[in-house]
């Protein structure tokens, strides 16, 4: 299946969706603290999307082939949960780390998909380092986005940085094309060989969302059919942005007032949303 090239109208719709997705994360940030349950965070996000934004939570009742419908509005992945943690009665406590993965659907049908890591109280040195390295991995992948580069360049940059730090890259889950469809071509691997894979072309929109484990990369699936944990119970971290390939480089679409800035080594040119090659 070919990778879709978005029209100017699509791109404008995706900018709006991306900003709205990021604004949900801004909204929920003050509530992410010791004593809150993941279910309460889900409830707050759900109400904000529906009542304030007029968006729809994309994960709610999402059911790819072979899956039962996902039962909540967001994903809350705590500590050794790699991805797709289902919100519930789990109480967040001091020292935990959690990834909140938010995808909204706008009234025009566009998806805005992003995630951030949060520290609960004071994190351990290990958790802080893993979270920071994973953030750098995402941005090093984003920095490879420009016409003429290849998807393998993104994965290679991420894998190199993660493994140099002594961490491992989850292979079973990856970034993806996105637009009016939640998950579409291409699959954006977070490992790989530079110069391989499809060539990047202006108008492509996809997510870059590396999942990095402090221990080994192997995974285990929980009985709910969704939650994925590290097999060795080591910590895992993930960050996600939605990226457009422009004529000269990239534009990060999931940007809001509270979006964390890029790492200093990426350069100030991308402190907003855009960068030239």
TrEMBL record:
<dbReference type="GO" id="GO:0006508">
    <property type="term" value="P:proteolysis"/>
</dbReference>
<dbReference type="InterPro" id="IPR000994">
    <property type="entry name" value="Pept_M24"/>
</dbReference>
<keyword id="KW-0031">Aminopeptidase</keyword>
<feature type="binding site">
    <location>
        <position position="209"/>
    </location>
    <ligand>
        <name>a divalent metal cation 2</name>
    </ligand>
</feature>
<keyword id="KW-0378">Hydrolase</keyword>
<feature type="binding site">
    <location>
        <position position="101"/>
    </location>
    <ligand>
        <name>a divalent metal cation 1</name>
    </ligand>
</feature>
<protein>
    <recommendedName>
        <fullName>Methionine aminopeptidase</fullName>
        <ecNumber>3.4.11.18</ecNumber>
    </recommendedName>
</protein>
<dbReference type="GO" id="GO:0005829">
    <property type="term" value="C:cytosol"/>
</dbReference>
<dbReference type="GO" id="GO:0004239">
    <property type="term" value="F:initiator methionyl aminopeptidase activity"/>
</dbReference>
<keyword id="KW-0479">Metal-binding</keyword>
<feature type="binding site">
    <location>
        <position position="176"/>
    </location>
    <ligand>
        <name>a divalent metal cation 2</name>
    </ligand>
</feature>
<comment type="function">
    <text>Removes the N-terminal methionine from nascent proteins. The N-terminal methionine is often cleaved when the second residue in the primary sequence is small and uncharged (Met-Ala-, Cys, Gly, Pro, Ser, Thr, or Val). Requires deformylation of the N(alpha)-formylated initiator methionine before it can be hydrolyzed.</text>
</comment>
<feature type="binding site">
    <location>
        <position position="183"/>
    </location>
    <ligand>
        <name>substrate</name>
    </ligand>
</feature>
<dbReference type="GO" id="GO:0046872">
    <property type="term" value="F:metal ion binding"/>
</dbReference>
<feature type="binding site">
    <location>
        <position position="84"/>
    </location>
    <ligand>
        <name>substrate</name>
    </ligand>
</feature>
<keyword id="KW-0645">Protease</keyword>
<dbReference type="InterPro" id="IPR036005">
    <property type="entry name" value="Creatinase/aminopeptidase-like"/>
</dbReference>
<dbReference type="InterPro" id="IPR002467">
    <property type="entry name" value="Pept_M24A_MAP1"/>
</dbReference>
<feature type="binding site">
    <location>
        <position position="240"/>
    </location>
    <ligand>
        <name>a divalent metal cation 2</name>
    </ligand>
</feature>
<feature type="binding site">
    <location>
        <position position="113"/>
    </location>
    <ligand>
        <name>a divalent metal cation 2</name>
    </ligand>
</feature>
<feature type="binding site">
    <location>
        <position position="113"/>
    </location>
    <ligand>
        <name>a divalent metal cation 1</name>
    </ligand>
</feature>
<dbReference type="Pfam" id="PF00557">
    <property type="entry name" value="Peptidase_M24"/>
</dbReference>
<dbReference type="InterPro" id="IPR001714">
    <property type="entry name" value="Pept_M24_MAP"/>
</dbReference>
<dbReference type="GO" id="GO:0070006">
    <property type="term" value="F:metalloaminopeptidase activity"/>
</dbReference>
<comment type="subunit">
    <text>Monomer.</text>
</comment>
<feature type="binding site">
    <location>
        <position position="240"/>
    </location>
    <ligand>
        <name>a divalent metal cation 1</name>
    </ligand>
</feature>
<comment type="similarity">
    <text>Belongs to the peptidase M24A family. Methionine aminopeptidase type 1 subfamily.</text>
</comment>
<feature type="domain" description="Peptidase M24">
    <location>
        <begin position="12"/>
        <end position="247"/>
    </location>
</feature>
């Amino acid at each position: 299946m070919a990778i879709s090239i978005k029209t100017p109208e699509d791109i404008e719709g995706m900018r709006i969706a991306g900003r709205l997705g990021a604004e949900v994360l801004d909204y929920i940030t003050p509530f992410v603290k010791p004593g809150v349950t993941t279910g309460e965070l889900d409830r707050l996000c759900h109400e904000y999307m529906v009542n304030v934004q007029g968006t729809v939570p994309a994960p709610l009742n999402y059911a790819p082939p072979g899956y039962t419908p996902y039962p909540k509005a967001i994903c809350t992945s705590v500590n050794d949960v790699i991805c797709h943690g289902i919100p519930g009665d789990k109480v967040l406590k001091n020292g935990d780390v959690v990834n909140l993965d938010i995808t909204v659907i706008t009234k025009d049908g566009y998806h805005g998909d992003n995630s951030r890591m949060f520290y609960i109280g004071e994190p351990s040195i290990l958790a802080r380092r893993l979270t920071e390295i994973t953030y750098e991995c995402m941005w090093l992948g984003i920095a490879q986005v420009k016409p003429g580069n290849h998807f393998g360049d993104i994965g290679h940059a991420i894998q190199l940085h993660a493994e140099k730090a002594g961490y491992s890259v989850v292979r079973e889950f990856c970034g993806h094309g996105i637009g009016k469809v939640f998950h579409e071509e291409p699959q954006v691997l977070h490992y790989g060989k530079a110069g391989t894979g499809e060539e990047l072309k202006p108008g492509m929109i996809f997510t870059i969302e590396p999942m990095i484990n402090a221990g080994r990369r192997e995974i285990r699936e929980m009985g709910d059919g969704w939650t994925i944990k590290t097999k060795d119970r080591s910590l895992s971290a993930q960050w996600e942005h939605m990226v457009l390939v422009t004529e000269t480089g990239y534009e990060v679409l999931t940007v809001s007032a509270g979006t964390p800035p890029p790492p200093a080594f990426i350069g100030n040119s991308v402190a907003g949303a855009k960068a030239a090659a």
